[in-house]
Design brief:
Blueprint (H helix, E strand, L loop, with lengths): L8 H13 L14 E6 L7 E5 L5 E2 L14 H12 L4 H8 L3 H12 L1
Antiparallel strand pairs: 1-2, 2-3
C-alpha cells in the first residue's frame, strides 16, 4: 500500500467514532438502548473499541450496521479511497495509490467505473 500507513491508526478510529456519534449519545445500533459499557477490543481488528449493550446483551462497535462492518480491508484504506474519489482521481490512479495488485486491478477499475 503506497499511502496507507500505520501512523493513521489512532486518528481514523477517533474520526469514525466522532462521525457516528456526533449528534446523539452512544447507543446500541440494534435496540437503540443507551445502557452500554466498554467491552475491550477485537483481536483481529486492533484499535477498534468494542461495546456491550445491556439491553439486548450483544456487543457492537463503531462500524456495526455500516457499509464497512464486514470489510476485509482496513479503515485507513477506505478513508484514503474515499478521499481520492472526492478529488476526482481516476480509478486507475486510485488502484495504483492503494496498491491494488495487477490481477485485481481490472475488476477494481470496472467496479469504480460503474
Amino acid at each position: 500500500m503506497a499511502l496507507v500507513g500505520s501512523h493513521l491508526l489512532p486518528l481514523h478510529r477517533i474520526y469514525i467514532h466522532t462521525l457516528r456519534w456526533r449528534d446523539r449519545p452512544l447507543q446500541c445500533p440494534r435496540c437503540q438502548s443507551q445502557d452500554v459499557d466498554p467491552w475491550g477490543t477485537y483481536h483481529y481488528r486492533p484499535g477498534c473499541k468494542r461495546y456491550w449493550c445491556n439491553g439486548c446483551r450483544r456487543t457492537f462497535n463503531d462500524l456495526t450496521d455500516t457499509l464497512l462492518h464486514q470489510s476485509k480491508r482496513s479503515l485507513p484504506y477506505w478513508i484514503l479511497a474515499t478521499f481520492l474519489l472526492c478529488l476526482a482521481c481516476s480509478s486507475r490512479r486510485i488502484a495504483r495509490e492503494l496498491g491494488v495488485h495487477p490481477p485485481f486491478r481490472m475488476p477494481w477499475v470496472i467496479f469504480m467505473n460503474i
